[in-house]
Amino acid sequence: MSEHRKETRKKLMTFTPVYDSNQRLLLGYVGDLTLLGVMVIGEKSLEINKEVMLIIEFPDNLSDVIATHVTIPARVAWCRHDENPQYFNIGFEFTKITPQHTKIFQAILERYQFRQDI
Description:
Layout: E1 10-11, E2 17-20, E3 25-33, E4 37-42, E5 51-57, E6 69-81, E7 88-94, H1 99-112
Antiparallel strand pairs: 1-3, 2-3, 2-5, 3-4, 4-7, 5-6, 6-7
């Protein structure tokens, strides 16, 4: 897979769990997020190209966004060991993004991303 990204990944400063809604299973926690996908840090490997329905639970104190969670279809784009071999970094590509998803993700990124002063 190419290392070139369409969007810059943003690391979040908040504890954000991600679930597989079909299996009602915690997959891990958001490592970084873009408007096109999410990287999850979890304890189990996932099959590449597997289609999943993700539930991402965001903090409930977003004044400009009503939703505290997003349910969004995605596919596993890649999966590899983290620097800590106990964990896996799992890259998900969102497969159907609505305008509401975009609004929520933009609000999350504006509020919670790490800011780097250059």
